[in-house]
Batch of 2 targets.
Target 1
Amino acid sequence: MVVPQPEIERVFAERAAELGVGVQRGTEVVSFSQDAEGVRLLVKTGEEVREWAYAGLSFDLTLTILSILLSGIRVLAIIQPLIVLIAVLRSYFCWRMRRAKIASS
């Protein structure tokens, strides 16, 4: 008996939903382990790169603002990096909300 791949995926997705397990597409299983609670998967989604980029940029901008304030340069000099930091943080939180919305649908 041959069962088409989309049918197999549908059945697995339905059963996973019954068990309260989310199905993630476009991911790679890096490793897995089993304990008394069940099986845990470590997956690679590509989203880690974006998370690290946002974190790195936010960290750099925060340190730029701090160094300007501590160096005695006029306070108005922080306006540009502060505006960019606000834009980066807004972009990050919008991206996270959009990702959560996609994951819940």
Note: The beta strands are 28-35, 38-44.
Target 2
Amino acid sequence: MRILLAEDNPMVVSAIKDYLKIHTVDAFSTAEKAITKFEHTHFDAAIVDINLLESSGLDVIDYMLSKCDKIIIVATSGYITPILKRDLHEKGIPLLEKPFLMSALGKELKL
């Protein structure tokens, strides 16, 4: 499985890559970099932090949904509001609150 990871915390990136070591994980710290890679690469799944440096993970999610309806997307955040929960729920995107168990991430990725 090829997975796009949009996450700006190096410790979280390392933990997720370690957990998903049998998969190919491409990590990006900004929405712009993640979107640029997504435009030219097939991904089976994406893990997207909502609060990225200089941008919002929601931009990444919205872009992905506009281009591909068959990708598994999991949102993550350390700061969750009721509005964020509602917006992601309406898009059918699961939201994991940081810190989360890697097993919860695996379940959402259908591993």
Note: Strands lie at 2-6, 24-28, 45-49, 51-52, 55-56, 72-77, 95-97.
